[in-house]
Amino acid sequence: MEEKDLEQVVLLGLEIESIEKEKASERKALTRKNGLKSEDAKYSQVNQGQTRDIVAKKLGISGKHWERMKYIYINRNQCIEQEYRDWREGRLATSSLYEKIRKEQDITSDIDKILHELWKLDVNKPLIICSPDNMSKKAQENLIEFLKNGGKL
Questions:
Q1: What is the pTM of this model?
Q2: What is the residue-wise DSSP string for 25-67?
Q3: Which one of 21, 30, 37, 76 is most buried, by most CB atoms within 10 A?
Q4: Comparing C-alpha atoms, which of 116, 109, 124, 122 is closest to residue 143?
Q5: Is the pLDDT of residue 90 over 90?
Q6: d(CA 100, CA 5)
Q7: Complete DSSP assignment for 90-106
Q8: pLDDT score at 53
Q9: CA separation, residue 17 to residues 6, 72, 151 (Å)
Q10: Contact between residue 106 and residue 98 where contact means Cβ atoms under 8 Å apart
Q11: Coil, strand, or helix at residue 134?
Q12: Residue partners of 56: CB distance under 8 A and separation at least 6
């Protein structure tokens, strides 16, 4: 792959993916309409395969790498701006940023589960929480619901 802004590569990949998903839907519909098994369908072997792998091949990368790049792009608001910029410019490995975002999401999910259980407790007992700036949207919604039910902070 030539030197490009990785965000631009992802945007190109998303365009290709949209086209390939439409082609896959057409192939599936044709197969079902004619009562054919997928291996009997009248389309070339070149066009068969998982959409992710077709997109990745057109981008010159592996399917796994494409999925990770797309994941980073979709979840870019969950990483530090400088890290995202470094990734875009090729100074930070895709796998490194992908793993960091995944870990952050796992931690956020665990915190949300704990807070959800705490909010089921007696609303007459005060609840100590972290700053809403550090909470996920779901955790903030649960906190609002807790307060609406008479909970105290």
A1: 0.63
A2: HHHHHHHHHTT--GGGSSS-GGG-S-HHHHHHHHHTS-HHHHH
A3: 76
A4: 116
A5: yes
A6: 20
A7: TSS-HHHHHHHHHHHHH
A8: 93
A9: 16, 16, 47
A10: no
A11: helix
A12: 13, 62, 63, 65, 66
